[in-house]
Write a structure and sequence with these properties.
Structural class: mainly alpha
CATH topology of the largest domain: MetI-like fold
CATH class of the largest domain: Mainly Alpha
Strand content: under 5%
Largest sheet: 2 strands, antiparallel
Radius of gyration: 25 Å
Oligomer: single chain
CATH architecture of the largest domain: Orthogonal Bundle
CATH superfamily of the largest domain: MetI-like
Number of strands: 2
Low-confidence stretches: 86-110
Order of helices and strands: HHHEEHHHHHHHHH
Helix content: over 70%
Distance between the termini: 7 Å
Number of domains: 2
Mean pLDDT: 77
Strand order of the largest sheet: 1-2
Length: 354
């Protein structure tokens, strides 16, 4: 297993470099100008100077190389400085317009960080500020969905064509088919406008420091978590049910029952473990979506998370932000794909990577 993990990590390096190059080239081909939103009264020569100040006057391969150095070398150094700094919780940044990450070096030896053209600050700093909001909503929804989906899928398969299975199939089909922009507006109309149970807009500035503030946080999370959990539960429970049905009629299940094992042991210790292999893939590959945010849901409920940040960056043609966020999602997918493969060997001893 260790040798397999090392091999996969080595293979991941050229994979991520290829993904980074693809993202960079696609954004280069995308239409739009980062200074297009500036007033039309700006003279053309000044507009061109602004483009050069953003680094657009250099050749394409130079800009790609600088971005790689910034992402893989400079940003980790800043993060390490942030972790080792005890006097402040903020990254060590000098008071300049270029947000130079210097450490103990002189200004001439400093390298610039990846700057957002729209927010005028390092992209990774904004990401770290917004991740807690995304994890509060999307992370909670994912955990709730897993806790609900696996038992529902197991029992639906065990009681195939029962009233519970038919009801679960109907609910999951509705949850999987209805888009979040419709279900989000629907729950706002019902639970916020009509019943006035929950706030319709998520307050991202809210701080949890006592029991009352914690209860308000739960109330404002309820509707977006409800919308996301319904969709995620529908997907995972359908995979769980289908995988359980594939295993329930196999020979090893009949053999276990013939040996006198109780039904709970047969289902939970044998069938469930083997059925989890395809479900682990769905869960592991869905975890990067937690960090990526739920773009539509965050827009509907005004959650100031990563998904909303990506939408604003796309609208503003903020290439450094779009490029960095997209590549972060790719890195997470590669990592959790490896995690899923390792879990296969843990769940099924027959799987070997030698």
């Amino acid at each position: 297993m260790l040798n397999y993990t090392i091999r996969r990590l080595i293979i991941a390096v050229p994979t991520l470099l290829f993904i980074a190059l693809t993202i960079f080239l696609l954004l280069e081909l995308a239409p739009g100008d980062p200074v297009a939103n500036q007033p039309l009264t700006i003279p053309p020569e000044v507009r061109e100077l602004m483009r050069k100040a953003l680094g657009l006057g250099e050749p394409m391969h130079i800009r790609f190389w600088k971005w790689l150095v910034q992402f893989f070398w400079i940003e980790p150094q800043v993060f390490i400085d942030w972790l080792t700094t005890t006097s402040s919780l903020a990254p060590i940044l000098p008071d300049t317009d270029f947000f130079i990450a210097c450490g103990n070096n002189t200004a001439a030896e400093c390298d610039p960080r990846i700057l957002s053209w729209q927010f005028r600050s390092p992209v990774m700093d904004i990401v770290l500020q917004r991740i807690p909001q995304t994890l509060w909503v999307v992370g909670t929804a994912y955990l709730v969905a897993i806790v609900i989906a696996i038992p529902v899928g197991v029992y639906s398969a065990y009681r195939q064509y029962s009233w519970f299975d038919n009801a679960g199939t109907f609910v999951t089909m509705v949850g999987f088919s209805v888009p979040p922009f419709f279900s989000g507006v629907l729950v706002i109309v019902i639970f916020s406008v009509q019943l006035n149970w929950f706030p319709s807009i998520y307050d991202t500035m809210h701080e949890v420091n006592n029991w009352d503030s914690f209860m308000f946080q739960i109330k404002q999370m309820t509707m977006p978590v409800m919308v996301l959990a319904l969709q995620i539960t529908s997907q995972i429970s359908r995979f769980m049910r289908a995988s359980m049905l594939d295993n329930l009629n196999l020979d090893y299940v009949r053999t276990a029952r013939a040996k006198g094992m109780t039904e709970n042991v047969v289902i939970l210790a044998h069938v469930l473990r083997n059925s989890m292999i395809p479900v682990v893939t769905v869960i592991a590959l869905g975890i990067p979506q937690i960090f990526g945010g739920a773009i539509i849901t965050e827009q509907v409920f005004k959650v100031n998370g990563i998904g909303e940040m990506l939408i604003r960056a796309i609208e503003a043609n903020d290439i450094p932000t779009v490029q960095t966020l997209t590549f972060i999602f790719a890195v997470l997918i590669v990592i959790f794909n490896l995690v899923a493969d390792i879990l296969y060997g843990i769940l099924d001893p027959r799987i070997r990577y030698d």
